[in-house]
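Can't paste images in this forum, so I'm doing it all in text. The chain is below; anyone willing to post the predicted structure tokens underneath?
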Amino acid sequence: MMEKIKMLTPLVEMDGDEMTRILWKMIKDELLLPFVDLKTEYYDLGLPERERTKDKVTFDSAYATKKYGVAVKCATITPNRQRVEEYNLSEMWKSPNGTIRAILDGTVFRAPILLDFIHPAVRNWKKPITIARHAYGDIYKATEYRVPDEGKAELVFTDKDGRETFRETVYNFECAGVLQGSYNKDSSIRSFAHACFKYALSTKQDLWFSTKDTISKQYDQTFKLIFQEIYDNEYKADFEKVGITYFYTLIDDAVARVIRSEGGFIWACKNYDGDVMSDMVSTAFGSLAMMTSVLVSPDGNYEYEAAHGTVTRHYYKYLKGEETSTNPMATIYAWSGALRKRGELDHLSDLVAFADALEGACIDTLSSGVMTKDLVSLTDGSIKTRAVTSAEFIAEIRKNLEARLDA
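Text version of the structure:
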């Protein structure tokens, strides 16, 4: 038995909900703990624990990430009214991802895991498209109000000295309706821009950015102007030196251009736009379960996660004692990404090599035709496939991982 690979600094480990929580334990037990002397600072972000702590555990996990620098997160439930009743919650707790992203003030980069035998639904896509999602503000931190009847809604700003400097009517309601106030701030937009430009330079990919500044003449235009100012003053020369471009367009035009493109670029989006477009891009490339996701903060903190949800439908089958064929790839890649980054920061080449071997073992498994049911129908017929359960898939990855580590 090989000696376990050592770690110096803990990862912040954020456990989650439902089927992904089950996969989380299987991945740790089968693919990590037998090979790595795993050090983590553990936070249970499962909905019952968030309820018990009144969501304090979510904030604690985010501040721990600022302390240790690298985190890995399981998928979590963002409760709606149905979930409030199902879990007997005292309130509709906000998205853990939204809370963590607001504290870290980072940018989420999401890219597909490409396989030779699964072709994108968009036939001209030949290279990956990376979504860079601003992870602050917008509707995720909005103030909302259910308007009960007639009345006037106003937008008011009072400066730090207590002077009212802006007041404008949003709408004179003649009946019941709904009201929402969202915000952003220049410092976070600047961090977002710097993260996108630096990532583009590091990967030598063109950067596209899109908003709707023709309609949102203050909110969206602020994003556009800050991006352009930072590009012109700090990155234009470097972009030209490595032969890549920065391109701005309206988001509706960007969608049309993306569909017609062959890929191979970074598409930067505001928070909500990035949330939607990353799901579109990942599904068109094959599966949301085949998408990597990392939050990068301006002060050098990293949080790796699966881009998908908690796979509720499979969890209910699991509770009935039925076997499921849930794809764990994105969750495995969250762990491998976090371990690789921890190894890089702590100068542990063995840990970096293990992360590479783990991802290689995943690709070896899929290339041999062994895969979960969601991928079988997406293959091009060039390999013979065998649909297996989640447990069988992870067991096959372990065999391939051991073979790689032995070699």
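The chain has a mean pLDDT of 94. The two ends are 14 Å apart (CA to CA).
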